[in-house]
Every structure is written in structure tokens, then in C-alpha cells.
Design goal:
single chain, little secondary structure
Length: 76
Amino acid sequence: MAPVNFTIVGNPTDLTVSQCTFCAHRSPDGAKCRAYPNGIPVEILFNEHDHSTPFHGDNEILYKPIQLGEAERVPA
């Protein structure tokens, strides 16, 4: 597969990526995870709370970075 080229419109420093993007517990669609099977709270999705520390209702499941192997990719 060929790489995809894209252009950021606006100031690149305004670009914010959710901590959930790189979490091993995230569902493939990115809206749920093992900690929040019914939907991730906006405080976590929008990085208002660092989920490496407990947050209400997380079932004691915290952020865990994805460990990528040679053939693995970040889930979409």
C-alpha cells in the first residue's frame, strides 16, 4: 500500500490527538474501550483527564500504550 500524503490546514500546533489513539485497550472504531465499553467519557477523549491515573467508572483499567511489533499498526 502506498503512503498517503495530506496537508494540515491551519496552524499545526493546534492539532491535538486523543490519548485514546495510542491505547492498547481501544476498540477498532475508537469510540469504546475495555475500560468504557459503552463509550469513552469526553474528559478522557479530549485529554482533559490523563487516563494513566484513575477516572470514575474505568473499572480500574488505565491507559496502556500500544506495543507495536514489526507487522502491527495503530488501530483505526
